[in-house]
Design brief:
single chain, 384 residues, alpha/beta, FAD/NAD(P)-binding domain, D-Amino Acid Oxidase, Chain A, domain 2, 2 domains, 6-stranded mixed beta sheet, 11 helices, binds flavin-adenine dinucleotide
């Protein structure tokens, strides 16, 4: 690569991209709109394949120190009864599923995983520039010129858009009406609580077991996300067919929002209602999605992570896909010129991304077989 690569967006996808490019001996500069990384966001699960990508970056032990390995998980109903019926599982061919036998996967606080990647990027001398919000680019036969809202510009051989669900790079590359962002019919609320604030609730929610409560239209997940158990995190993903005005959800005062959420758990066996009311750090989002993308790139500009595919929140695969994208695109760039690299990246990643996307639709399909789902030990079929 004659000139450096420009990465736009410093979430998990962008940071991992910069590290994989470094591993491939390709120089990059990463632009991030935030002024700095902060303790923000909630938790996410990273599946075994995503964890493999982090290990390929040599971050296995840092990840171990900063996240929670899920070794025990209970799937329960509102009365605290297990929803795992062993006979039914055997019928579905799932009798072999035992967390002791499945590859490891983790629950992570977003800010902690970002910090693991960021510290490693700093250690490796990767050029990261904050407070830079991309608002345009042009490309010609020599490269891409990007412009930022502050009027500054930069020139690189290629541009990698890693700027999340509402990607400006995607919007400019494939303008409306291609790939419109649509309300997904689902909402997510993420909470994080210091264990010192939990009082008596500590006995219910700070054990190593990850708890997942499932009812007809939602999943409530609560787990440690760090070995020290200083904090726990929870999330409530719900189906909500009609979008609410932002003032009634994202922008609702936290006190009122908590009351709304807590009311759902009024007659539940576990004190989830009290847990919600004890939580001050809450993020509420009505979730947006794009349909499967036909094209992953155009010319010298390519997309990765949430900018490229919005994974269904029930599947919890967004971060895993982002890490896989970063590894595979860097590997292709290591071995090919950018034109072939983009071609193989799109061609080889599509089946995996499409399977993940379609698995979400299968959740309500009684005829779906286990192998139809892109959930656990499946992942990207490639090594560095
Ligand atoms: C603040 C925040 C909190 C989140 N919290 C959760 C959570 O609690 N649970 C969960 O499951 N998922 C959460 N997510 C989403 C989750 O991190 C992603 O789904 C997943 O990790 C894939 O990451 P990504 O890097 O592709 O996208 P993202 O994590 O969305 O990262 C995109 C990055 O690009 C930056 N960016 C956006 N536009 C521009 C621009 N024009 N110029 C420069 N930079 C730009 C953003 O600031 C962000 O850092 C959160 C995302 C963000 C941004």
């Amino acid at each position: 690569m004659k000139n450096k690569v420009i990465i736009n967006g410093g979430g998990v996808a962008g940071l991992a991209m910069s590290l994989f490019l470094k591993k491939a001996n390709i120089e990059s500069v990463l632009y991030e709109q935030a002024k700095a990384y902060r303790k923000s966001g909630g938790h996410f699960v990273v599946h075994p394949s995503g964890l493999n990508m982090l290990e390929m970056l040599g971050l296995g032990s840092e990840v171990e120190k900063n996240t929670h390995f899920i070794t025990d998980m209970a799937i329960l109903d509102k009365n605290n009864n297990s929803l795992i019926d062993e006979d039914e599982m055997a019928e579905m061919g799932l009798d072999e599923i035992d967390l002791d036998d499945t590859p490891p996967f983790i629950n992570a606080a977003r800010y902690r995983l970002i910090d693991v990647l960021y510290q490693e990027a700093l250690r490796q001398g990767i050029d990261i520039r904050f407070n830079k919000r991309l608002n345009g680019f042009t490309q010609d036969k020599d490269g891409v010129t990007v412009t930022f809202e502050d009027g500054s510009t930069d020139f690189g051989s290629i541009l990698i858009g890693a700027d999340g669900v509402k990607s400006k790079t995607r919007e400019l590359l494939f303008p409306f009406p291609a790939n419109p962002l649509k309300y997904s019919g689902k909402t997510a609320v993420f909470g994080m609580v210091d264990n010192d604030d939990l009082g008596k609730l500590k006995d219910y929610f700070t054990m190593d077991t990850t708890l997942m409560y499932v009812d007809e239209n939602s999943i409530f997940f609560v787990s440690k996300h760090h070995p020290s158990a200083e904090e726990i995190s929870w999330s409530l993903i719900s189906e909500r067919p009609g979008k609410l005005p932002k003032k009634d959800f994202e922008e609702k005062p936290v006190k009122e929002l908590k009351k709304d959420i807590a009311s759902k758990f009024e007659d539940w066996e576990m004190p989830i209602k009290e847990l919600v009311m004890t939580t001050d750090h809450i993020i509420a989002k009505q979730l947006y999605m794009i349909d499967l993308m036909r094209h992953y790139y155009h010319g010298r500009v390519v997309l990765i992570g949430d900018a490229l595919h919005t994974a269904d929140p029930f599947a919890g695969m967004g971060t895993t896909l982002a890490l896989e994208d970063a590894m595979y695109l860097a590997k292709m760039l290591r071995d090919n010129d950018y034109e072939d690299a983009f071609y193989y990246y799109e061609h080889d990643r599509k089946p995996r991304a499409e399977k993940v996307y379609k698995s979400a639709e299968l959740i309500n399909d009684p005829d779906a077989k286990f192998e139809d789902f892109a959930i656990f030990d499946e992942g990207i079929d490639a090594v560095w």
